[in-house]
Write a structure and sequence with these properties.
The chain is built from 37 helices and 27 strands. The protein is of the alpha/beta class and 955 residues long. The strands form 9 sheets. Strands 14-9-15-16-8-19 form a 6-stranded parallel sheet, with helices on both faces. It has a 5-stranded parallel sheet with strand order 2-5-6-1-7. It has a 3-stranded mixed sheet with strand order 20-23-22. The two termini are 60 Å apart.
């Protein structure tokens, strides 16, 4: 007999359950989440028959559905822990793929999907060794070929388990319940929003054994839209549903109103009173949103309203936010005062195994990815992760930014030890060979190169000693790993990294409990990776709930684990159109359209958050997170509508707490940053974006072109520069002996070897593209010189002065122009600025106006600074200034020709512009001018980390 009890407010009290359902009969109590299990244990509802021993031999009551059934199964079967099962699945995949490397890599890449698929088939009782897939399932396959692989993988997987005399839980529990009776009179199942295949089968078995099964689930007849998933889940028992009256969820009128009227069947009236306990907030970016969340909690603590255990942070994807919250708590610790007046630091619950995901822990994980069947293979990203970890000491860790900058120029093609050593020796030998100031390798000294060389040698040596194809017990692998790690430990390791290392040793002890089978070194590495992640967010959340949550812990949960639990204060972060509702995951390999059910579930999950609140609810979203933009969730907007309230728009300026500023601020005179000399290029950069100028002055390393596509364009300019350099040095060969293009291409070929040496990370396809672009520029140069090209002369450092008028003085400032080469033409000598343009601007800009799209030439005003609206305007002004200087000051040309008149006019207005910009520089005025030019700007990443676009301040 099956009976459903529903309630529309709080969960039924233990007395109601005992009187209505138990009635002094023996019972089994099963819950959907660990949170409900913990609460019902406190309520005294978990019977003595559900006391089991944990891994440490201590008695512990269990009520979580999988935990209880697993304990039953252990009575007769030896279960393979999830870690061992994963190892055996890896072995099965390797056996099935055999010598087909591409198939092996494909299967391993989709490992989690295959793993879930095998567990699902076991839960459904489908054994392809003895039966075929049903026609319905065959029709649902996204690719018929998958069935063949599935049969082979499942057979080999089960054979591997059988050799160890083990079974997976889903397989074993079906056998156990088929052959054994449930010993209690009744079964109570609480909090199951939906039922898995195994849970449905379990209910069928209970019916067959004549057991009464009682379900407890929330439902409100006036909010069918919100509870449709519950209605669908319990459709098989809905006709006999019994409704229970329970205590109200909240006493706060506005919270109570949305708990009873959100997603209501009939159109609700707008909440008629003042909204006091619900806050809807919009932030300009994700970082500001998370900071705002912690600031709200800090405010509650300072007012003495709540303790950490009375607050919960909810997010649809906890993994996405946990590390960022941890970082903010590290940078700005939160304190609270307990009931005895003692102060404590707030922390997040810490699972030791997740320490392997810290930079220090990733060093260990990376070690086991370096040795392959082909031998030692080290990717540039792995090398970067290793030196950034801090395990190898502070001095090597501090060189990470240098490696990251030089990676795309020198190291992305490196894999073997010999390739790494060759490129590092080449870098040390040739780094001083170039004068190209925007190449990242200009920043790297010999000591840094030698340190990197030592790292490669050390990694090779460690991996060589660690790796073996022989299978050994996990304890031996751990002992060998710890021995190697202790040998590597440097003297200058930072204290924080050392503390993490000590805690990671706990993970090794835990790993010994997960595996009883012998593993190869590669399998041990896979095992380390496996324990850092659950099958999904729910599994990770259950792990957190199983661990001891301290009174000073601030919990971050997903709605699934919040279902049926209440907190005084709830903050829901990331309530945007991407995270709530979360995007529908396409099912694989059996396709079934579950979009409608998915939306039902997502709506209920949001309702779960609303129902969990007793006193204060804060819901927030951010407009941006990195390059991603977001809109408010439709659920966010629905609460806005039902309450008739407006969201709070939190701008970046809200981070300033003006109330904390002193009333009397002593005025101090700011000392202006006065210089005697500027280059024309940096002045022009200021004229386009003052913030770029400032960042390049503050952080010289950010001047370097570090992205692969930036380096490919820059390489074109460097190659042209080398061509002209060779021509200038080889003065005896006259260019008119050959057509201009042929003459330049001859030098292009002779300089090619040096270019390959300068950019060793580039592949053949990249070089083919670069070579074609350089040839096009040579053709352009031929057209520009119009067959009057006589040769190349070395340029001189030129300069002119501008007059600055201050309050007490007038002074001159030198503006320098350093053009490397001059084209000697029959009638005129012209500066060659192709390379210089690539070096300073990378791209010349487009004709389309970046802001309005109308090709406007007018300067724009930002915070009192007159700036170029586009990169093209800035580059044109910079180029015309160089050409006009040479025409007017060097060549002393004048006349009626339109081009000369244009340059004369341009030059007459140059100094006024420069004076305006220098005055603003010396007044420390550095606004940001956003536009399409930001895409090619070398300081783009630093800019995104330091400031935001001007329009982000506008509310």
């Amino acid at each position: 007999m099956l009976t459903l009890y529903t309630y529309d407010n709080q969960r039924p009290a233990e007395s109601e359950i005992k009187n209505l359902i138990i009635k002094e009969r023996s019972y089994t109590y099963l819950t959907a989440t660990m949170a409900i299990a913990t609460q019902r244990e406190k309520d005294g509802l978990i019977p003595a028959e559900q006391v089991f021993q944990d891994d440490e031999g201590k008695d512990r009551k269990k009520a979580l559905f999988a935990d209880v059934l697993r304990e039953w199964t252990k009575r007769e079967y030896l279960l393979a822990p999830r870690g061992e099962a994963k190892t055996m699945l890896f072995r099965a995949m390797d056996e099935v793929s055999k010598d087909d490397i591409s198939l092996r890599n494909l299967l391993r890449h989709d490992f989690m999907s295959w793993s879930r698929l095998l567990y699902d088939l076991a839960a459904q009782g489908i054994d392809l060794r003895i039966e075929e897939l049903s026609k319905i399932k065959k029709d649902q396959l996204v690719n018929p070929k998958i069935e063949d692989y599935l049969k082979e993988i499942q057979k080999t997987f089960y054979d591997n388990l059988r050799r160890e005399n083990k079974k997976i839980f889903e397989q074993a529990i079906r056998e156990y319940l088929t052959n054994n009776q449930i010993t209690t009179d009744i079964v109570i199942m609480e909090g199951f929003t939906f039922l898995t295949d195994l849970q449905k089968w379990f209910i069928e078995q209970c019916e067959k054994q004549g057991k009464e099964v009682f379900f407890l689930a929330p439902y409100n007849d006036n909010q069918k839209q919100a509870y449709q998933i519950i209605r669908n889940t319990y459709d098989f028992v809905w006709a006999g549903r019994i409704s229970i009256e329970t205590s109200k969820l909240s006493t706060k009128e506005d919270i109570k109103y949305i708990q009873n009227n959100l997603f209501a069947d009939s159109e609700p009236q707008i909440f008629p009173e003042q909204v006091e306990n619900v806050s809807l907030r919009q932030f300009v970016n994700r970082d500001r949103e998370l900071q705002g969340c912690l600031e709200q909690i800090e405010k509650w603590f300072s007012e003495g309203l709540y303790q950490p255990e009375e607050i919960v942070i909810v997010t649809r994807r906890a993994k996405e936010f946990n590390d960022r919250f941890q970082d903010y708590l590290s940078m700005k610790p939160l304190e609270f005062t307990d009931e005895n007046g003692n102060k404590h630091l707030v922390t997040l619950p810490n699972n030791p195994r997740l320490l392997l995901l810290t930079p220090v822990g990733r060093f260990i994980l990376n070690l086991y990815q370096l040795w392959h069947e082909e031998g030692f293979l080290l990717e540039s990203n792995e090398f970067e992760s290793i030196i950034a970890s801090g395990w190898l000491g502070a001095s090597i860790q501090d060189s990470t930014s240098l490696f990251r900058a030089a990676k795309n120029q020198y190291f992305t093609a490196c894999k073997t030890k010999d390739e790494w050593i060759e490129k590092l020796e080449q870098l040390e030998r040739y780094s001083e060979e170039t004068d190209d100031v925007r190449l990242p390798t200009k920043l790297i000294d010999s000591e840094t190169v030698r340190n990197w060389n030592k790292v490669v040698e050390m990694l090779y040596s460690v991996c060589y000693r660690l790796f073996s194809n022989k299978k050994s017990p996990v304890a031996e692998h751990i002992e060998k790993l710890q021995e190697q790690l202790n040998e590597m430990l440097p003297e200058d390791i930072r204290k924080s990294e050392k503390e993490v290392l000590e805690k990671i040793r706990e993970v090794f002890d835990e790993l010994s409990n997960y595996y009883s089978i012998d593993l190869t070194t590669t399998e041990f590495g896979d095992a380390l990776h496996a324990i850092t992640r659950g099958e999904n967010d729910n599994e990770d959340e259950e792990e957190q709930e199983k661990s001891d949550v301290k009174s000073h812990n601030l919990r971050i949960v997903i709605p699934e684990t919040l279902d049926g639990i209440q907190f005084k204060a709830v903050i829901y972060v990331g309530c945007d159109n991407v995270h709530s509702p979360v995007l529908y995951p396409e099912p694989w390999p059996f396709y079934k359209d579950g979009r409608r059910e998915h939306l039902y579930k997502e709506r209920y999950m949001f309702m779960t958050v609303v129902k969990s609140v007793q006193e204060n609810l804060v819901i927030s979203y951010s407009q941006k997170d990195g390059d991603h933009s977001f809109q408010p969730s439709t659920y966010f907007q629905e609460i806005e509508r039902v309450l008739g309230t407006k969201r709070e728009k939190k701008a970046l300026l809200d981070t300033l707490d003006i109330s904390k500023a002193p009333e009397d601020i002593k005025q101090s005179k700011v000392r202006s940053a006065r210089r005697k000399e500027y280059s024309l290029s940096e002045i022009a950069h200021y004229g386009l974006c003052p913030l770029r100028y400032r960042l390049e002055m503050l952080h010289p390393e950010v001047r370097m072109y570090r992205n692969e596509w930036q380096l490919e364009i820059y390489a074109q300019g460097v190659w042209l520069n080398r061509i002209f350099s060779l021509i200038e040095r080889n003065k005896e060969e006259k260019p008119y002996s050959l057509p201009t293009s042929q003459f330049l291409m001859k030098y292009m070929q002779s300089s090619k070897e040096g270019m390959l040496r300068l950019f060793p990370a580039f592949g053949s396809i990249t070089w083919h593209s670069i070579e074609n672009q350089v040839k096009n520029q040579i053709k352009y140069f031929e057209d520009w010189t119009k067959n009057y090209f006589k040769g190349v002369k070395k340029g001189k450092k030129e300069s002119f002065r501008v007059m600055l008028s201050g309050t007490n003085e007038e002074r001159t400032v030198k503006i320098s122009l350093d053009v490397p080469f001059i084209a000697d033409r029959t009638k005129i000598q012209s500066p060659i600025i192709n390379y210089l343009q690539t070096e300073e601007w990378l791209l010349p800009g487009s004709n389309k106006d970046e802001k309005s799209g109308n090709g406007a030439d007018e300067d724009i005003d930002i915070e009192g600074v007159s700036l170029f609206p586009t990169q093209k305007r800035a580059v044109d002004w910079w180029r015309d200034t160089i050409n006009s200087y040479y025409m007017v000051e060097v060549e002393k040309k004048s006349g009626t020709h339109w081009y000369i008149k244009k340059l004369e006019k341009h030059y007459s207005g140059v100094k006024e512009k420069i004076v305006h910009w220098i005055n603003n520089i010396e007044s420390s005025n550095f606004p940001k001018n956003t536009g399409d030019h930001c895409k090619s700007c070398p300081v783009r990443l630093e800019c995104l980390g330091i400031t935001v676009a001007k329009e982000d301040f506008t509310e």
